[in-house]
Design brief:
The chain has 389 residues and is of the alpha+beta class. The protein has 10 helices and 10 strands.
């Protein structure tokens, strides 16, 4: 009996009936709604905003949050499969859903008041309110402790000044979860886009994540009421907790990108005939395809086990770092290799590997560069922090 070429260890059989149903539903959405348009969106530098209501109707925003707040009450493996199938379409589509869910809805649920949850979460789940996450700054990058954005008390309000960079959904957002230094440490604020002094501008000339909105945020004396402060957390652990949630989803998303590239490389290599035989009949092609399948299989098993750890409440941030590092590196290497195997055809967006390879150059950088995650694992192994000093 032949093994499924994109699932050599039959990982799908390890899923529950609900998890398989969710994967199938999102896979169908990706096949019918994302893939027919995403090549053109990437070429045009356009985020397919028309898909947002459909993503909401499928219940893909805040899928793991309680139904009382508009969520789906799903488990972490189901959320991972959502990310996997969306990124099989494009990293930009997965990034939109990831930011909306893990970086915006999650902190409001985890750190916000019940009034904040009821005000924002149902509308965000319905896709009627779009959020963005303001942590990264141009000079800080991987060092969020070097944050320059500040919030100071002014009567019953807070006044925010500063700027954030590389913000997904920034110019689409109705609300930004902005992290700022205060006299009592880093705190989070819900900054509404209509507030005076707030501005967002698209970052142009991108060669990666072209089907995604990437922005810079500017805060010039923005007055934010106390009711918009996330009072349930203080210090960088709040922002870093959000990143752990998002990085978890990225470990699955990278699998989707690699799956798309391997699938295309397999199909092309069987159809393309050179020197009297299909490319797939050559030893060099089979060695490459086998290596990509090996690495994809390892990533599939790694993320599934990570999901089960998260389900059990025992997942550690270092485990997320290891999986993000491993899986995104795997996906980037598979995408680059598949682009090469396709030859000249591989440089066009008629085929997916070049698009995924370019996108993954961002994915391997954002939410912790590869080096940052390597050092996180190194710190766990040695007990020595090599980030500073």
């Amino acid at each position: 009996m032949a093994l499924p070429p994109l699932d050599l260890y039959d990982v799908r059989s390890l899923l529950s009936d609900e998890e398989r149903a969710i994967q199938s539903a999102v896979a169908d959405f990706t096949d019918t709604r994302v893939l027919p348009i995403i090549g053109d969106c990437f070429a045009e530098g356009r985020f397919p905003r028309e898909l947002v209501p459909e993503l909401a109707r499928l219940g893909l925003f805040g899928a793991t949050l309680p139904e009382a707040y508009g969520g789906g009450g799903l488990g972490p493996v189901s959320y991972g499969l959502i990310c996997q199938e969306l990124e099989r379409g494009d990293s930009g589509v997965r990034s939109f859903a990831s930011v909306q869910s893990s970086l915006c809805m999650y902190p409001i649920f985890a750190y916000g008041s019940d009034a904040q949850r009821r005000r924002w979460l149902p509308g965000m789940a319905a896709g009627e309110i779009i959020g963005c996450f303001g942590l990264t700054e141009a000079h800080g990058g991987s060092d969020p402790a070097n944050m320059q954005t500040r919030a100071r008390k002014a009567g019953g309000d807070w006044v925010l000044d500063g700027a954030k960079m590389w913000i997904t959904n920034g110019t689409l957002a109705d609300v930004a979860v902005v992290w700022a230094q205060t006299d009592d440490g880093v705190q989070g604020f819900l900054v509404e886009s209509a507030m005076e002094g707030f501005a967002a501008h698209d970052i142009r000339n991108k060669m990666s994540l072209r089907a995604s909105v990437t922005s810079a945020l500017y805060l010039d004396g923005v007055r934010v009421p106390e009711a918009n402060r996330l009072a349930g957390v203080r210090g960088l652990k709040g922002a870093l907790g959000c990143l752990t949630e998002a990085r978890y989803g990225i470990t699955w998303g990278a699998i989707g990108a690699a799956t798309a590239c391997l699938d295309e490389a397999l199909g092309y290599s069987k159809e393309r005939v050179l020197f009297g035989r299909p490319v797939a009949a050559t030893q060099s092609a089979q060695v490459k395809l086998a290596d990509w399948a090996r690495r994809l299989t390892a990533a599939q098993l790694l993320s599934l086990h990570l999901g089960r750890l998260k389900e059990a409440g025992t997942m550690h941030p270092t485990q997320v770092s290891l999986a993000k590092w491993n899986n995104v590196r795997m996906a980037l290497d598979v995408a680059r290799g598949a682009r090469d195997l396709l030859g000249g055809a591989g440089i066009t967006t008629d085929y997916c590997p070049i698009r995924h390879a370019l996108n993954l150059e961002s994915v391997i950088t954002y939410e912790g560069t590869e080096t940052v995650h390597q050092l996180a694992v190194g710190r766990e192994l040695t007990g020595i922090n090599a980030f500073a000093g």
